[in-house]
Structures are given as structure tokens and as C-alpha cells.
Amino acid sequence: MATSSHSDKNNVIVRQPPKSFANALTTSQFTNGEKPDYDLALKQHNKYVNTFKELGLNVIVLEAEEEYPDCCFVEDQALIVDNHVFFPIAGAPSRRGEQKTVVETITPHMKSIHWGQESGRIDGGDVVRVGDIFYIGKSKRSNNEGVSQFQHFLTKLGFESYVVDVPEYSLHLTTLCSSPNSNLLLIPESSKNDLVFTNLPDSVEIITIPDNETYGCNTIGIEDKVIISEGYTFVKKILIEKGLEIIELPMSEFRAVDGSLTCLSLFYK
Ligand code: CIR
Predict the structure, then answer these.
(1) Domains of the chain: which residue ranges?
(2) What gap in Å lies between CA 152 and CA 18, rounded to an integer?
(3) Is this structure's pTM higher than 0.85?
(4) What digits encode the pLDDT tens for the residues 1-31?
(5) CATH code at 11-268
């Protein structure tokens, strides 16, 4: 989800992993450094795409770009808020060239277009929307200038936003948490004190997830359904108890390179 509201997900842009996927950037936050398997990643990606089709979304599949091993993580290349877009300068220099095709695809559908300026850095993975409040991660991939440019964009659109310091052990803010609907926020137990969500409304319940399911904290909410990563039993059980319908997807190959469910998609109305 990152920046779109739960009911605004009519169209989704995804990109298939390239054959060079084994060279994607990774801090091995969730693994022991194993390389991802391209064939399995493609199968997992196809399931991801089919899920959106089955949910009735219009799915736009971009072609893989071999020179960009991380190109399937389209979330990082555009911040779409109610069909207004902010194109950031991505934090990782090796990923900046991925943006061109994303820009060409999205631009015709947007009400307004805004560009990140030097020396600002921010990735889509740094942003979590909780209802109508935006939390912006100050992470390995963002800097104060990038965060403040995006906040300016949000302020002009009438949204409140707050900065959250992302701990060193994590890549992005979305790597650690998500808001599967406007009233829930999933956070791993040991990150609870590290992540400060200023002015979180009382209506939002924080669900603390055991640390061995940290990767499972990244989810995608679409209306009353939630897509979660396969194998996270606590996350699954608690979201079912909250009355949500769960769709589980295998994500092992994306997890190997620090990629979560939200990283693979960009939604717009
Ligand atoms: C990277 O390091 O940039 C990719 N391997 C993973 C990007 C994950 N994207 C995200 O959290 N939005």
C-alpha cells in the first residue's frame, strides 16, 4: 500500500523480475545471504499478479529491464497520492534508471506531477499511509531534504505527515510495518520502541507482532481483504480475528533481497 488509500486501488503497476535478479541489492536483513532464484521469483511474481487480477484490478505489467536487477520493486520509483504523483530521486544510485518507464506509464493518469530535486533522496518504501496520515521514514535511502520535499507535496494536497526514524537494522519503513486497513498498524515487537508514530489517532490499534514474524508485518490491504506473505501464522491469525479476509502469497525470493509485498506494486485510482 504505502501511499494509496485502501479503496483507491483500481489500477496496479507491476514489473516482472529480470533474469539478472540474483544481482539485486540486499542487506540480507531476512536471510543468511542466499541469492534469490530467478525461476522461482518469476512464479511467485505471477501469483502476485494473478491475485490482483482475481480481485478485479486493472493490472499493468511492465517488461523486466535486465540492466536493473531491482526493477521489479516499482514501489520505490513513484509516490502516488490520490492520483497526484511525486517522482523521487531514489536513494540507491544503481536504481535511478528504473524510473523512466514508470514515469512514462503513470504520467498520463495523474492529476499533477511533481519531481524530487537535488539533493533530496527518498524511496517509495520509506512511506506508510495510516488512514489519511503519512509516516515518512528517515532511512538508509532517504535524507532530510528528500523527506521535506515529499512533506511539502503532501501539505499542498492537504495531508498531515510525520517523520519516523528507521532503525539501522532495516532498509525502509515499509520493511518493518504496514497498515492493512485505516484502523490497524502492524509493528514487530522489538521495533515498537524504535518506531515513533507521532499523533497516531486513537482509532488506530497497534498490533505487536513477534520478532520471528517481522517480515510478515508488511501487508497490502484492498477493501476488506489483506494480502500477507505465506508462512506467518501469527500475522494470519490476528488479522482473521480482526475480521479480515486473508490471501497468502509465497515471497521467499523477494525476501532474499529485502523486498516485501508492497515493494512490488504501485496503485492508482
Ligand atoms: C533494494 O535494495 O533497493 C531492493 N533490493 C529492495 C527494495 C525494497 N523496496 C521496498 O521496500 N519498497
Answers:
(1) 11-268
(2) 35
(3) yes
(4) 467 776 679 999 999 999 999 999 999 999 9
(5) 3.75.10.10
